[in-house]
Amino acid sequence: TTKMVKICCIGAGYVGGPTMAVIALKCPSIEVAVVDISISRITAWNSDQLPIYEPGLEEVVKQCRGRNLFFSTNVEKHISEADIIFVSVNTPTKTRGLGAGKAADLTYWESAARMIADVSKSNKIVVEKSTVPVKTAEAIEKILSHNSKGISYQILSNPEFLAEGTAIQDLLNPDRVLIGGRETPGGQKAIKALKDVYAHWVPEDRIISTNLWSAELSKLAANAFLAQRISSVNAMSALCEATGADVSEVSHAIGKDSRIGPKFLNASVGFGGSCFQKDILNLIYICECNGLPEVANYWKQVIKVNDYQKNRFVNRVVASMFNTVSGKKIAILGFAFKKDTGDTRETPAIDVCKGLLGDKASLSIYDPQVTGDQIQREISMNKFDWDHPVHLQPMSPTSVKQVNVVWDPYEATRDAHGICILTEWDEFKTLDYQRIFNNMQKPAFVFDGRNIVNIEKLREIGFIVYSIGKPLDPWLKDMPAIA
Ligand code: NAI
Fold it and tell me: An example Gene Ontology cellular component term from the record (predicted)?
């Protein structure tokens, strides 16, 4: 045990970067190299401007970088030197071919596995960190063993449960660490080696070991359950608006039941992020492939309700504003898929903005962590439609021109007819709404897609306010939205 353990992580993204930084922080005796084929990402990891925004990340990276944490594009060298290789590459939804619109695209994973097989000269533990379909470990094992040159590989599944925006806290203090492996002596030995890494800071009773398939499926199941909670409360929010119930009161009341629990029960404009939709689609595909259409349809509904919620929001905006937003300036506050991240993958803001642009609105967007370039790219990109994989919805160049990104919320809202709050950034709670109101067109509308504003206060100022799942402003009752 005098030899220093070496870890290599393939993929320096939202998962690979923070995860390895925390391992390096907590295990000074382990050398951690994070490698990526993207030169710009690695350059950013080695600079003062890290490629991702995550509270607390910079401090951890600064403490370890150059000591026992390295970011490099020399993929081959670090793979060949490592004892344990984490694979944390992206696994997006396939957009064409077999399973398009649902199945996970394992191209990046397969190329990482082939690279490992090519350059390895000693035995390796290969850890699936990416979220992958159940049974992927079997495929990886085949690729490695058919190209093995006498080297032995152990595959482990160690899915990551961190949430963006709280990644460092989640990694420092995880609810659990899950490690799946083969039930053979070799498999058990590999599990033990990975356990020893986490045991540097995670209490032993929080490190769970299972068989490979349970570990792989647990990640998909966890995301499906989490997203299902959001779609459930969002479905309730529509009924609240129709009946005069208040979704926050309902959430509070049901969350007191210890079997339900209080967390993750906020109604909103919908869930986003790179994982929930992708992982549920993946789950649906696996169910269909296993001849379980009823199970597939059950989970499909979670995504359908999410799409419904985004549409419903757009319809509310348009209907409230006399059924047209054509030529009207609408301020969008928040574009990231949640607060404390700059990540915009699958953010509900994309669909809301596209919906409003479809009605010819002119948008002025402000987000404290997202650049104009990134917003323009997201909005002009042809979004892949999971429900109708053959149809793409191209954005016309003229509607993209209707998007203006600014660095100040007061500028975004100046002369606007309405404001849509799409991310729950804390700073939106304390804006000077009187000042904003004074500079807007009248009637002035606030559509709060995250239920963060003080409705009463805003109504006193003179705003017409829509909050998801809350008793409707009399104005909105007179302008029914047909969703
Ligand atoms: P990401 O897209 O931010 O990072 C993936 C990185 O892998 C990219 O920088 C890419 O250049 C690199 N890469 C791809 N192929 C490569 C190769 N052959 N060799 C070297 N580098 C390669 O993705 P992210 O968000 O980090 O997700 C990674 C995986 O973790 C996905 O499977 C995702 O589902 C899963 N996951 C993501 C979470 C999140 O919050 N983002 C949370 C838990 C799991």
Answer: nucleus
Q: Are residues 403 and 266 in the same domain?
A: yes
* Known catalytic residue at 353: no
**Among residues 202, 226, 255, which one ends one of the domains?**
202
Residue 317: phi and psi, rounded to 5, are -60, -50
Catalytic residue chosen out of the listed positions 275, 287, 353, 420: 275
Instruction: Indicate the number of domains in the chain.
Output: 2
CA atoms lying within 13 Å on the CB side of residue 194: 29
Residue-number span of the structural domain to which 377 is assigned: 246-478
329 CA to middle of ligand 1, Å? 37
Residue 395: pLDDT band (50, 70, 90) is low
User: Structure tokens of 210?
Assistant: 């299972």
Q: Is the dihedral of CA 321, 323, 327, 329 positive or negative?
A: positive
- What interface predicted TM-score (ipTM) does this complex get? 0.98
CATH of the domain at 301: 3.40.50.720
Contact 68, 28 (CB under 8 A): yes
Q: With a 6 A CB cut-off, is 41 part of the ligand 1 pocket?
A: yes
Mutate to test the pocket of ligand 1, among 22, 79, 86, 88 (most ligand atoms within 8 A of CB): 88
- Domain assignment present for 234: no
- Is the previous residue joined to 443 through a cis bond, with omega within 30 degrees of 0? yes
The annotation status of 14 as a binding-site residue, yes or no, is: yes
Report yes or no on 292 lying in a domain. Answer: yes
Per-residue pLDDT reduced to its tens digit, 194-238: 999 999 999 999 999 999 999 999 999 999 999 999 999 999 999
Domain co-membership, 198 together with 337: no
208 belongs to a structural domain: no
